[in-house]
Amino acid sequence: MTGQPDLPSSTWSCTDGTARVVSSEPGTVRVQLAGEIDLTNSDDLGRWLAEWHVATLQIDLRQVRFLAVCGARRLAVLRTELDAGSRRLQVIPPDDVVIRRVLDALGPFELVESEAGAPG
Length: 120
What we know:
By secondary structure, the chain is of the alpha/beta class. It contains three helices and six strands.
């Protein structure tokens, strides 16, 4: 036994979507989501994301082509759970105006624009 906490798998996938850890620094994990986040996968994805016990969880949505309201709602629930534990959820939004509107409707989310060095 190493005394280190068990870490979740660095990838998650389903028929229509994937998630993978693209960077991990002390206290921060950035997860890139791709594909579709909808009724068929949002709860499972939310459970996987909730397993990351870090001070800041960054969710990169730039590769998401469809975000259903239930998917954004699951991210909002995750944000509330993290806030309750004095942790942060940051969202890197896509250029897609429809997805941004869904996020705005269910936010507020801490939006972090794409930065130099952020995988895209």
